[in-house]
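User: My advisor, Dr. K., asked me to get a structural model of this assembly before our group meeting. I'm new to this, so sorry if the format is off. These are the inputs:
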Amino acid sequence: MDLGLNEAQQMLKNSAREFLDAECPTTYVREMEEDERGYTQEMWQKIAEQGWLGLIFPEQYGGIGLNFLDLSVLLEETGRVMMPGPLFSTVVMGGMTVLDAGSEEQKQELLPQIAEGQLIVTLALTEPSARWDAHGVETTATQSGGGWTISGTKLFVPNAHVSDTYVVAARTGDGEKDISLFLVPRNTGGVSQTLLQTIASDRQSEIVLDNVSVPASALLGQVNKGWDTIEKVLAWGAIGKCAEMVGGAQEVLDMTVEYVKQRTQFGRPIGSFQAIQHHCANMATDVEGSRYITYQAAWHLSEGMPAKQEVAIAKAWVSDAYRRVCDLGHQCHGAIGFTKEHNMQLYSRRAKAAEVAFGDSDFHLEAVAQAIGL
Amino acid sequence: MDLGLNEAQQMLKNSAREFLDAECPTTYVREMEEDERGYTQEMWQKIAEQGWLGLIFPEQYGGIGLNFLDLSVLLEETGRVMMPGPLFSTVVMGGMTVLDAGSEEQKQELLPQIAEGQLIVTLALTEPSARWDAHGVETTATQSGGGWTISGTKLFVPNAHVSDTYVVAARTGDGEKDISLFLVPRNTGGVSQTLLQTIASDRQSEIVLDNVSVPASALLGQVNKGWDTIEKVLAWGAIGKCAEMVGGAQEVLDMTVEYVKQRTQFGRPIGSFQAIQHHCANMATDVEGSRYITYQAAWHLSEGMPAKQEVAIAKAWVSDAYRRVCDLGHQCHGAIGFTKEHNMQLYSRRAKAAEVAFGDSDFHLEAVAQAIGL
Amino acid sequence: MEFKFTPEEDNFRQELREFLKNELPDDWAGGQDEEQENWGFTLEMRKKLAQKGWLTMAWPEEYGGQGASHMMQLIFAEEMAYQRAPGRDQFATKMLAPTLMIHGTEEQKREYLPPIARGEVQWCQGYSEPESGSDLASLQTRAVEDGDDFVINGTKVWTSNAHHADHIMVLARTEPDAPKHRGISFLLADMHQPGVEVQPIINMADVHSFNMVTFEDARVPKKNLVGELNRGWYVGATLLDFERSGVEYSAGSKRTLEELIQFCKDTNRNGRRLIDDPVISRKLADLTVQTEVSRLLSYNITWMQSQGLVPNKESSMGKSFGTELQQKVARVGMEILGLHGQLGPDSKHAPLRGRIQQAYMTTVSATIAAGTSEIQRNIIATRGLGLPRG
Amino acid sequence: MEFKFTPEEDNFRQELREFLKNELPDDWAGGQDEEQENWGFTLEMRKKLAQKGWLTMAWPEEYGGQGASHMMQLIFAEEMAYQRAPGRDQFATKMLAPTLMIHGTEEQKREYLPPIARGEVQWCQGYSEPESGSDLASLQTRAVEDGDDFVINGTKVWTSNAHHADHIMVLARTEPDAPKHRGISFLLADMHQPGVEVQPIINMADVHSFNMVTFEDARVPKKNLVGELNRGWYVGATLLDFERSGVEYSAGSKRTLEELIQFCKDTNRNGRRLIDDPVISRKLADLTVQTEVSRLLSYNITWMQSQGLVPNKESSMGKSFGTELQQKVARVGMEILGLHGQLGPDSKHAPLRGRIQQAYMTTVSATIAAGTSEIQRNIIATRGLGLPRG
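Assistant: The format is fine. Below is the predicted structure of the whole assembly, which you can bring to the meeting.
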């Protein structure tokens, strides 16, 4: 048992924090909420220069060769400052899918581009049914003339508006898990993309694929074997999201503690009132529990160990814990916290989006029940 | 809408409180916890003299002719002081069953005796399966030689050790609700009764009926129609129990408020600490909500109106609310509250028994779901 | 006891329901009344409700009421909230008017009540200040006597509907040297005068609901002092109990819950109706129970008022329970909607036209506005149960 | 990071498990160690555990330990709690000993630690008094210097295992005129002396677990003063952090939860296995998650100790979370058992031999003993987060 960061992770964490404190203040986050793209190209290039986009890719693909645990350390920091932009979708949802399923050629082609910030990729998985299982994939791909024709509707696809390439999960057989993955450039004929209005002011899209033709080389991995990769990506996504949430929750706790120390009512700081103190204590306990339960799962994933139960436990807990932390944060902040100008609500809106991403606690409690044989 | 007691109810409440404060102090309750019968004959006679045993029976059966709402007002008071003895089982579970199902002759014979304190009756319904539906009745009664032979095991029968007569629910046909009721004197051959060790130190028994022969006249109501009565009795029982719980919860609140006013720590009454204040506020809100939700159902039952939803809502809420009130009462009392010598634990143990009697919140939430068409 | 309405009351509810059915657009799902785009419709509805005499039913006839029962007024409030119908000015009808009837002069009542009854005015509430929220009595807005007037300087905040208001009730400090509760007066000020400035505050749901109101030498005639000079705190507290005593909390929850239940009956997911998922059905049953408790807590307040009793801890119980329930309903709703819960009202994929998402965001303020849940529990404990102040 | 045990640690757990399997009766379901009928077995087990060197593994060898890692000790504590095995004297091994290693003199360590390591003694904790519970520092038991001794007078209460104890650690006031935290000393007293009287306190589960201990001119040699005179509060606080830092909370919950899950798999109700009831299965999954969180909160405390860090808010988090979870597990267990949950251990109809019912009653004290949940949250907020004291 070792619950601490190693030296390299601590350095990564420190440098990320330093970079983000300088480059990603909430003024930037707020600007990006209103911005059409949702991030600046300048910031994206800086992120690439930090090596974050290739952090988890092996060196032969232009990456740094760190592991998922290291990536989680980074995501805790990006979550802390609510860093806008397609890092999560490009690296965790796009890049790691390519890394897991792609042919050597595909990896050689795509991963270095991602690492350099030249290629933005996302995963188009969920559909209007909003299911996380293979049944949820109703988009079909059929072979035609040496290539494939894909039709269907994808919903809640993050950063599809700026992604150069979509990894599209499509049904290629009648078996439950007969799902295959395809690389579909955004500008392919028949692809239309519409931004959704979401609670987190993030950039999720509806993608309609209307008889979209792609060549045989667009197939990522083997036919009907895509779901094996998706299952891994869902676990990475869930725990990567947990790491972001831990960072966000910690920041909400910190900002709340700061606020209740300085806000005075009845002639004393409101942080001296027991009700407020207990709210803060509950928040702190939730943050602490969230952190270890997240890193336990991240470590298992990082080691390539079976982690169904650990992942489900983590996402079930953190999804609710972050929301509770925000609820109490709001309660401690009073009216100022739900004004648009205050940062508190930036976090609580993102907490809701993160809660439902990759399955909420209802979904993962069901998975826990299955994992322990209930 | 009228949420207040009428004058007669207020008088009943006042006189009950006066009587119980004098006759049923906690010293008596504690003595009776250790007593084999669980109450004194002297007290029983006094209760009969108060008219409580016949309160709800029509005057032609030796009763006072008050209604179920009036009875609920009384039960709130008996619950407040945890009055020991078979009043609830004799009146609500025994007497009201006879009143609903019995022939004129049976009512003429039994009810005046109950009202006078001469006859103690209980309902033997639940079995080791602990189900509250008709499927739960596996005890059988078969016709033989002009009478009936009854066999089976009843569990959790209140006050069976002192009841002269058991109303036994037994299966008399293959249909789901082919249940009939029988009057079985305790001393009938083949009846054996064993006291159970229970959390509330109340007096519940296992009753084994081993080929018990009763005459045809033992049938209460019609063959295979007993479940109609049982459904009513379960509603009366649930809401009568809620009324007791409201009384108990109010007393727990009162004793807790009293304690936290006088108990001093850190140089001030602990009731001046916000955490304790908020515990007490939550208790008070639970008591208030419990009272109105109980009386709403009691009024509906009293008026003979359909009340499935009101009953289920009340028992679902009050079962949990009373337990919450006790939990917080304990938390405010600290260590002294879970010593045997303190009254707090007398209430919290009874709260648990009342919670599960006539269905707990899980059971009744399911009933609510059905009632609103979920 | 009687847990039903009289035939007359039932008839009135029916009449009101039909009126609203006729007046509200077919697809009416409620709106943020105070937003500019809806304000015209709000005023129109107000006029019509006033013509029916419904805005102020329980008032004495001399002030524009009908001397109806408190229960009739509760039914009006409940049904309006349940139907999410616009038109009520709660600051005037629910809060100011009953306070004026207790503490106001005959002249004040005659001046201010009839226009409210006629639906001609909008009031707002000048209570909170940037440095005085939960500790309202520490407020620093000053009112200084100057001839026949008070001259007001200071800043009020979180002032809902100030941008539409004609009048504001202002708690202002008139005696700076007195103990803080003893130097406050309750004044009725005209919003349409120089020296009153209104700045919008946008909330997290991107709605302009609150405002900041700044007074710079604004004037209030002395006859607009309600209650005694320097005793305004007690007038203001009376008003707060009225503010917190609403049946609106449970009515709103009930409506949203019913819509959720219907949605779960109508919607399939993973091959079965949502309602057939036992975890979902359990959550909805649980909320049904709590909504019923919330309803009775608020009925009790009205019943007490009808008996001439003054609800106090009961208002705080109803308020804290009701607003926490509103948050639970919104939270469970979001849980049920899952990914779709993220979608705003303008999205074609948004279930229930995005109402749940809006409720999720707007109810954040429910346990804070009109006194936080913590303050309510303080009140229940100290004023209600007699626990010593901390 | 590494979220697994080393092979050596796994081996030790396995060895301990097998040892306990051999030593405990086949149908061992745990007992109330401190009850008279079980006490002989407790002492027997203690001796055997001592012979294995397990009672005090992480201690330095010179005091009877083995210099093993904190994690090894955690495994011992976790497994013992999980198996509900008797024999540990937590007052000595978990609380007093690590405190003595920090604050004790060499002489005290040499005198008191080896007997603990050999399993020869029982300690108890003389902290609370009738008028000093949460406000422990207000304690009034007096210790007055008299020659080479202190003479103690006063009353301690809620003293678990005092009726079996050889020694008691006493917080006593040695300087009545100092500020309350600055006049307390930490003393080690012999229970077997005139002037020490032990009276039983029976708890709501009808178990003799607590006692009242009265000192009437009892004597403590001055060499038994731990830490400085009048600075005992800080010694005592060190001990409290050790007391609250246990993995026992989660281990106990884990065991009970697993038994409940097995029971739900084995038991049919209403024609299906209990476990197939989605509402029940959801509750069990939820508790599984919380038990895991509780486990990691306590692992973190041990990990900090292994790094030479001093857990403080972490102990209070682990304690409050862990004990509240114990209550939830017992509550859910009772919900699942329904009517049968009422039955005590002696009833033939009692599921799981009445353990759930017993847990339901005994865990009432969990959030009160060793500092209430309210006190833990105060500590997290003030000492942990730096919020100003109220």
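One thing worth pointing out at the meeting: Residues 323 and 352 of chain A are 7 Å apart (CA to CA).

User: Perfect, thanks a lot.
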